[in-house]
Amino acid sequence: MSQRIRLGILTPSSNTSLEPLTQRLVADLPEVSVHFARFSVTQIALSPDALGQFQQDRILAAARLLADAHVDAIGWSGTSAGWLGFDQDEALCAAITDATGIPASTSVLALNKALKAFDIQRLGLASPYLADVQDKIIANYASIGIDASAESHLGIQGNFAFALVDEATLDRQVAEVVAAGAQAVATYCTNLYAAHRVAHWEAQHGVPVLDTVTTVVWDMLRHTGVDTRRITGWGRLLQEA
Length: 241
Fold this sequence. Notes:
By secondary structure, the chain is an alpha/beta fold. 45% of the residues lie in helices and 17% in strands. The protein contains 12 helices and 8 strands. The strands form 2 sheets. A 4-stranded parallel β-sheet has the order 2-1-3-4, with helices on both faces. Strands 6-5-7-8 form a 4-stranded parallel β-sheet, with helices on both faces.
């Protein structure tokens, strides 16, 4: 067996999707294990208390706990930079590495790398979020030259409830944004139970589907020297980028 690789994943406290999906994602990599640390996140909104959930010191405390496990990389499996600004994740990664000595990535920064790899200018944005949160995400993508106006959102605020979104609803959202002209689709929330459905959507619609649970794992595996092409059935990102 190859040298063991430990991935440390920062997890919103009310999230029940990303842990089982991440475990399934790496199941065919016997040398890779994933380890999770939670911090409190219960709602996604633009109110001061909701935005305050993502203060850097709170996330760093969880990252330090992952460092105790001697993980090889730390990933924030969350999409908060979508509405807070991509610079927030860049600063967070720098702070994590400064505090722990461990390289760091995030779902959103990894997604943005994937968009460059696939040369995407028109992104379909499927999320469970409130309209004003979605508008912030669209504006932040516009600031880096990506049109994310092909969008579908569900108007949900409670983070726990995102995991309850059913497959038929996700199927509809993906189909809507593809019909609106998206060159690729992002399922933009790590508490959507969606990552395992990516290959199905890609076969059905003929465009890459980039799930935010998968993007951070993809980026962390690349950093740790693991060939992601060994992971089959989880979409084009792992096979082609």
